[in-house]
Amino acid sequence: MRVNSDLMGRISAWFFIVANAYYPAKILTRKYIGSSREITNFFNGYLKVHILFNLIGLWLTLLHGHYAEEKNLILQLSMLVTIWLSIVGMAMYYKKPAVLYREMKLLHTQQIMFYVWVALIIIGHSLN
What is the pTM of this model? Predict the structure, then answer.
């Protein structure tokens, strides 16, 4: 079976886009609409989609990176950040380990981590 690395990369990008729209959507909703039971229920459900789609995106990204012909240090760093963000996100959701929850949340939810992650992906792919 021939694996199309480019297609996997594109599909994983879409999974990450849908998954990570969670955070800005939640902030914009809080700012402009406020909070209600329906909104809270929606975002509780979207959190599950956020986690699931990030895990699917991670899996597809791992396959994409494995089968890709081009590799460089920047792309490897972006892969490490992707893995780290996904694992820490899962650990936060299950609150394991509980003693590190505050630190994990602080690092996982920093917007700069998102910008670093996206920059590494863009720069790494533009080098090839």
Answer: 0.86
